[in-house]
Pyrroline-5-carboxylate reductase (Gopherus evgoodei), 272 residues
Amino acid sequence: MEAREELRVGFVGAGRMAQGLAQGVVRAGKVKAANILASAPSDRNLGAFQDLGCRTTHCNSEVLQHCTLVFLTTKPHLLPEVLQQIAPAVTRDHIIVSVAAGVTLQTLQQLLPAGTKVLRVVPNLPCVVQEGAVVFARGSCAGEQEATLLKSLLSACGLCEETPESYMDIHTGLSGSGVAYVYLFAEALAEGAVKMGMPSALANKIAAQTLLGAAKMILETGEHPAKLRNDVCTPGGTTIHALHELEKGALRATIMNAVEAATTRAHELGER
Ligand SMILES: NC(=O)c1ccc[n+]([C@@H]2O[C@H](COP(=O)([O-])OP(=O)(O)OC[C@H]3O[C@@H](n4cnc5c(N)ncnc54)[C@H](OP(=O)(O)O)[C@@H]3O)[C@@H](O)[C@H]2O)c1
């Protein structure tokens, strides 16, 4: 395998997710911008790659000709057509990494030449600010070396874990869609403060920082969230009074239901 500084990374599809991943690996020094080549049919998104110092093309096969590790970052419904187009250019030296939601490793392997090293990644939106939560699974021909390489690259975009493919829909319910539950929570938190008289802009900033700080404490202390929550609850104090209100509103059960609903829906969409 090429030395890391010589690794050539391609993106077939140059939208928001591709840009986020490219920014992460370039800013972290994992890949030189000049060694990244991105393709898309229009110029709409290619300018962002050029601004980063990457090369661009309108030809998907050119990406396969020049790059060893290639991310497939088009919308899922376009992937079969794109795979058909690039398949003749795919060799056993390539590492093909699909980011398309709901497209299984089995489908990818069926649509690519036998023996192709394929991996499947499920990112979430905060990858665009390098604070994503990413899981990936490998196909039957991708080995430890490819998994290690991918994990090293994607760690530049946030947390990155290898999991069984069966966890991918759960990851969508927990984290892909979960980002939206957190936005809703942040919005409600700030609106509570606005109701009590704080200006909205300040309340939104403080709500976001509260989420960031609380999340950082879970990750840095390694403590269970229930332990950290308990630490904030002075007997008879403000927090336990507030938590009682949340329990009356069945916040916990509602969020568990939300994760279940999104996971089930991801599974249904993947079966289409
Ligand atoms: N956004 C998320 O939070 C998220 C989370 C998990 C997974 N994903 C997955 O990430 C993938 C990309 O999502 P996105 O949000 O980045 O989409 P996006 O912003 O719409 O970008 C799609 C890109 O694909 C390009 N494209 C369209 N047809 C193509 C073709 N035939 N060949 C090559 N490129 C083509 C588009 O070209 P133009 O630039 O010319 O329009 C665009 O650059 C999807 O499969 C999605 O399931 C996204």
Observations:
- The two ends are 37 Å apart (CA to CA).
- Strands lie at 9-12, 36-39, 55-57, 69-72, 95-98, 117-122, 132-138, 158-162.
